[in-house]
Structure formats: structure tokens, C-alpha cells
């Protein structure tokens, strides 16, 4: 009998992977059986792209015939491709005359070795348009790649074109995705970087479920700084006392470049950077983002990018998605959507919107969703984080506490922790829904901060409510 070996090439799914949450739902000791609650982003880890992903047609993964997933496959070594390089038809010359309609192709780029690095996502080898069309002509069944995409994820035009060509030719796309350190070897991902150049914007305790004390959290940065290349460069925000002490005590011969907040002003809801060469209007929001811009400038300068080129590019940067994202705007009101969940991030986001529109009333809504934010001991770290807001709502779903196996959190505990003069605490979706409907935005701004999903209430629905 001929033995067949099955090799699993998929990435293991765990809580350190982006877009993944795995929580105990029931336990043998308490409930009589073990069960788990899984929340998965559809492109976490190794995944297939459905045609609906890029709107080629309405087909979803669940209707794909399973027979399509079993076929003869060719593994092609293309490790010769450099970062950001294009994989072309000539790189598949070894199988060009052998491949049959219905066969599949796995491209071996060696890119799985880059997992956990910036390069893995941002410098991946890509399939050329020529190759995508060739795969269609050859009636290839499946194309599998190690990186998180078959095209440049930072180039919407390219990634759309390549996906459309493949999907319109009924080619199944299987991609990897980025994930962090192992849940068994619980070491922060930054310890694997050992960079030559680094920028550190600040140190503020978070993730109490992983780092039970503030000192334990700070220790991770001590270890990180100590491991930086001795001939390397550390760019750091000089007004963070904890960070200053860490850099002072742990650096060992590296070039140290401290930075502070560059001069800027706010005019008509826009930040203006005040450079020696003249004012530069920006599309970002918040003092913390102006500081981050300065760190980015110094990083770029350190690798040879001229200031003029940096400023010419940064003036059009609108910030990352879900980071103070402007969701809706009228003549008298704006609605912002933000991922803030740690105390320092909440503080920065609320301050950012208020300093942009000091004369408008600010209504801030914050969802407690993470382990830290729902922890009775840690929640005091949020003291005064909502202070600039004229009205504030803190929302949490009581069921989340059950899922995360956390102790009950009373509304009074939350009010005492936040210390806000006009704070409403809501613990069920119906009451949140009603409160949103009662918000009237006139010369007012609304800031929604959540790393969850407000129990399924969508941002577009919120716009409808308050409008």
C-alpha cells in the first residue's frame, strides 16, 4: 500500500493573531463541560478569499464546492524574488508545459520566515498582472501564497486589480496573514525585532491580563531597549518620564535622538504645522499624532529621506483607519470613530477632538471591552481620561464579563473610576440605543471609542440616529 502524508501548511490560530479572540465559554469544573467562544475576522491566519471579497460576484466561502479544495498541486520555488518584487510567468517556466487545467499552484517564497515583522505585510512579493492573466489562461484551480495577500496590501488599485483578475477566472486564492508571539511562549513580539533604528512614543501600562503590574509592563521596554543594536539609533519622546528613565538606564552606546512636540496651531478645525519654511496644513488630528509625525520625520531622516520629501508626502496623510477616523461631517457637527481602549489612548483621543473644536460641545462614548478595561483593579487607570468631554457615556455589555470570566463591574465603580462630572454608565444594548437616539448634534461633536462593536450597533446607524 502506498502511504500518503498530509502536511498542514496553515498558520495556527491563537489569541495573539490579529482579528482573533478565543475565550472560554464553559468549563468542566464549573459547568460540567468545556466549550469555547471564537470570534474570527474572515481574513485571519491562513484563509481563502471569496469572490464577494472584492465584489466580483455574491459568492461566499460557504457555497464553494468542497471538491474544489482537493486537486493536484505544483509547488514552485520563487525564493529568488526580493522584497516587494513581482512574480512573473518566467518564474513558473519549470511547470509551464506540465500544468493541466484544474491543477493548483503553491508559491514558495520563504515569506513565512518574515512573520511578526513589518516586512511580512508591507514588503511582500506580489503576483504580477501578467502572471494573474496567465493563471487564468491555464485554468488554474487554486493559487496559494505565504504572505497575507497576492498583491501589495498598501496599494488599493493593485490589490483590487489582481484579485479581480484571479476571481473572474474562478481561481481560489489562499493567503497567509500576520500573527504575533506564541501563546505558549508568551513573549511580546517587540523582543524579536532587535532593530537598528527604533522610535518609542511613550510607555503607558495596559493589558493587565498579560502584564499584571505596571513594573512588569515597563520591564518589557527595558528588555527591548537593551536588545537594540549597539550601533543603532533610538528615537524617543523626551517628555515621557518613564520612557526617559528606561532609555537612560538601558541604552548602551546607541545614538539617542529625543524629540518633543513640534510647533503647531489649530485653525477652523485643522492642524497647521508651523515650520521654518512656512505653515503646512495637515489632515491628522491630535497633539499625539503631531508628535508621532515628528518621530516619523526623524526616522525617515535617519534612513536618508529629505525633510522636503517627507513633508510633501505627509501633507496628504489622513491617518490610519479607525484612529480618530472622521465618519460624518456637517457644517455644525462631526462624528469620529476611534479604536482607543487603553487609558492613555482614550485620554489622547478625547483631548484631540476637543482641541480641534474647542467651542463645540463634545459628547464622548467609550465601550469597555478589553480585559484591562473590564478589570475592577485596572479601571482606576481611566481617571479623568474623559475630562475634556462635556458629556460622556461609558458602555459595557454585562455578557462580555461572563465570556471573559471576569468579576462583576458595578456602575458606581465605573463612575468612581472615571471621575467625570457628567457621566452616564450603560450596561445593555437597548439603553445605549435609546441614548444614541436622544443625542442631537448642533454645534457639537460625537466621539465613539471602542475596540469592540457596541453590541452590533453600526456606525452608519449611529449617524442616522443623531442626524
The biggest beta sheet reads:
6 strands, mixed
Percent helix among the residues? Answer: 25-40%
CATH uppermost class of the largest domain = Alpha Beta
Number of helices: 13
Sheet-strand content, in percent, reads 15-25%
Rg for CA atoms:
25 Å
Strand order of the largest sheet: 16-17-21-18-19-20
Q: What features would you highlight for this structure?
A:
alpha/beta; 5-stranded mixed sheet; single chain; 21 strands; 4 domains; 467 residues; Glucose Oxidase, domain 1
Write the layout of secondary structure elements.
Blueprint lengths: L19 E7 L1 H4 L3 E6 L6 E3 L23 E5 L8 E2 L16 E5 L9 H5 L3 E2 L1 H9 L4 E4 L10 H13 L3 E4 L21 E4 L13 H13 L6 E5 L3 H10 L4 E5 L4 E4 L2 E6 L2 E4 L5 H16 L4 H8 L10 E5 L3 E6 L4 H14 L4 E7 L23 E5 L2 H6 L7 H8 L4 E4 L2 H9 L6 E6 L9 H8 L1
Parallel strand pairs: 4-6, 5-7, 6-8, 8-9, 10-11, 11-12, 17-21, 18-19, 18-21, 19-20
Antiparallel strand pairs: 1-2, 3-9, 13-14, 14-15, 16-17
Helix pairs in contact: 3-4, 5-6, 7-8
Characterization of this structure:
- It is a single chain.
- The chain is α/β, with parallel strands linked by helices and 467 residues long.
- The protein folds into four domains: 47-175, 3-Layer(bba) Sandwich (Glucose Oxidase, domain 1); 189-259, no CATH class; 264-314, no CATH class; 325-466, Alpha-Beta Complex (Protein-Tyrosine Phosphatase, Chain A), CATH 3.90.190.
- Helices cover 26% and strands 21% of the residues.
- It contains 13 helices and 21 strands.
- The chain has helices spanning 28-31, 118-122, 129-137, 156-168, 214-226, 241-250, 287-302, 307-314, 343-356, 398-403, 411-418, 429-437, 459-466, and strands at 20-26, 35-40, 47-49, 73-77, 86-87, 104-108, 126-127, 142-145, 172-175, 197-200, 233-237, 255-259, 264-267, 270-275, 278-281, 325-329, 333-338, 361-367, 391-395, 423-426, 444-449.
- The strands form six sheets. Strands 16-17-21-18-19-20 form a six-stranded mixed β-sheet, sandwiched between helices. A five-stranded mixed β-sheet has the order 3-9-8-6-4, with helices on one face. The protein has a three-stranded parallel β-sheet with strand order 10-11-12, with helices on both faces.
- The termini are far apart.
- The relative contact order is 0.07.
